[in-house]
Design a protein that fits this description.
Elements lengths: L1 E7 L2 E6 L9 E10 L2 H8 L14 E8 L12 E4 L2 E2 L5 H4 L10 E2 L11 E5 L3 E3 L5 H4 L2 H13 L7 E5 L3 H12 L3 E6 L2 H8 L5 E4 L5 H9 L4 E6 L4 H10 E9 L12 H5 L3 E4 L5 H12 L9 E6 L3 H9 L7 E5 L2
Parallel strand pairs: 10-11, 10-13, 11-12, 13-14, 14-15, 16-17
Antiparallel strand pairs: 1-2, 3-4, 3-8, 3-17, 4-5, 5-9, 6-7
């Protein structure tokens, strides 16, 4: 089988490997589509702080079951599925308290263990979720959707909350969609006009092009000088975290999704003065996957507009390189693995 292989930062290629054999409690999956996450690109460039090498990237995927034992989930050969890619130890303090997404020994596919950019993978049956009739393309979007969805659920987003999402890549856009599902007033900020226009397809209430507009001035205009009730950082830069602090209302929530290596310095007294709630958000939970599959299958939300390109597996390396020079026109790239 063919896999995408990152030997070390900057060195990526297609390689051949043996098809894995499932053990007791596992299924053999044939990958249908695999999404390229910003974390995968960061693994390629060496900017993902948690990646170990060498590594097969990928954790956003859909698949067809090709081999599975009898199971209590009624999953069977031929089912189109997705899966939870965050492996937890089940014994640490976080796992004992049910915070499985923040396991202290977490291993995410494509980061600390080999991922889904492979024609076949094995997966514990307990981690596999039936697609309920969703297309393989749509199912490959459930994992990134779950990241934004989980993040929004970390804060106190409710009807008519004024929400600012900084960053309209896939995760930021999915966070904006998740906030809209709670009937919030959602505004998104970015420096890429094409990304902002794409976010409008998902019903956001306003866009702020920070390459042309002053974010603080726009915030005052939108919120009558009060600041946003919830600010979501989906970039991973220190500067955008500071933007969240500056543009948050007194008593607001700040939710951090963006992941980066850079440190940031600020006067912590502003957090006290404004009595801000700061929430980190990592990965997602089984309930997030299950709820979103139901939600998308019901027709309540359309998410396929976020797909900008689909590459065949033979051109997967080209797809990674395209994202290195993204001018904002690439929202979510999928690779068709089979």
């Amino acid at each position: 089988m063919i896999v995408v292989f990152i030997e070390k930062p900057g060195k990526i290629e297609l390689r051949e490997k043996e098809i894995p054999k499932p053990k007791k409690g596992e299924a053999l999956l044939k990958i249908k589509y695999c999404g390229i996450c910003g974390a995968d690109v960061a693994t390629f460039t060496g900017n993902q702080p948690f990646t170990t090498y060498p590594r097969i990237p990928g954790h956003e995927f859909s698949a067809e079951i090709v081999e599975i034992e009898q199971n209590d989930k009624n999953l069977k050969v031929g089912d189109i599925v997705t899966a939870n890619p965050y492996f937890n130890c089940k014994t640490c303090y976080s796992c004992e308290r049910g915070i499985l997404n923040a396991c202290t020994s977490n291993e995410t596919m494509g980061v600390q263990r080999d991922g889904s950019f492979s024609e076949y993978i094995v997966m514990p049956i307990e981690r596999i979720y039936f697609g309920k009739g969703l297309s393989a393309k749509t199912l490959a979007l459930i994992e990134p959707f779950s990241i934004g969805y989980h993040a929004v659920n970390r804060g106190h987003v409710k009807k008519d909350s004024k929400v600012l999402v900084i960053g309209t890549g896939a995760i930021g856009t999915f966070a904006a969609i998740s906030a809209k599902l709670k009937s919030a007033k959602v505004y998104v900020a970015d420096m890429f006009e094409k990304r902002l226009k794409n976010a409008l397809k998902f019903g956001v209430d306003g866009i702020i092009d920070v390459s042309k507009e002053n974010l603080s001035e726009k915030t005052k205009e939108i919120t009558n000088g009060n600041g946003f009730d919830i600010c979501i950082e989906a970039v991973g830069h220190g500067a955008t975290f500071l933007d969240c602090i500056e543009n948050a209302a007194f008593g607001a929530d700040i939710i951090l999704i963006g992941n980066g290596k850079n440190e940031v310095t600020f006067n912590h007294s502003i957090l006290l003065k404004k009595e801000l709630n700061i929430y980190g958000s990592r990965n997602s939970l089984k309930k997030d996957f299950v709820e979103l599959i139901d939600l998308v299958a019901s027709g309540s939300v359309e998410i396929d507009h976020i797909i900008s390109d689909i590459y065949d597996k033979e051109n997967a390396i080209e797809a990674f390189n395209v994202l290195l020079h993204n001018d904002g026109s690439k929202f979510k790239i999928l690779v068709k693995m089979s």
